[in-house]
């Protein structure tokens, strides 16, 4: 019976040597495969096939180069900023060109939140001719009107281009008679008797 060798006697040596053998065999196979496909190249990498359609890196063109890429090409952030600017411009034009504007959720005929319904209901009952803007139809307007007025909630009422307030303020002004005075001072037609009936009902 042959004497056990050092390797068979100590399995730890096998575990240490085996990874090196695996790497050696794998590297040898890769080199043989490369030689078989491309032949001896003498490290001449030009012999390998090149995909002409693959994207390549090009260093930035020097300043003043007419072929340089336009650095002002719009990106996602600039497009978003431009969209918000357009929304504020649209809001400003709407507010300035109409005597009474209500930014609300839904329409005056079909409000889609209780606060919008209350303010629109007051204006409708008082016979005020107002322009409504449904913020649910345009997310940019919905956020833009908050930035425009620096007021975090909707609805928002504007009279003669000036921000008056939201639901709570309009309710208080209606019950105190301040809204009547504002309409009178601004030359906005409204039904005085209807306004008095609101106060009587909530007295």
From TrEMBL:
Endpoints of the signal sequence: none
Molecular function terms, GO-annotated: 2 iron, 2 sulfur cluster binding; metal ion binding
Keyword field: 2Fe-2S, Iron, Iron-sulfur, Membrane, Metal-binding, Redox-active center, Transmembrane, Transmembrane helix
Region (Disordered) location: 49-70
SUPFAM superfamilies linked to this entry: Thioredoxin-like
Residues in Glutaredoxin domain copies: 100-164
Transmembrane segments: 12-30
Keyword Zinc-finger carried by entry: no
NCBIfam families membership: Grx4 family monothiol glutaredoxin (TIGR00365)
Annotated family: Belongs to the glutaredoxin family. Monothiol subfamily.
Listed name of the protein: Probable monothiol glutaredoxin 2
Organism: Salinihabitans flavidus
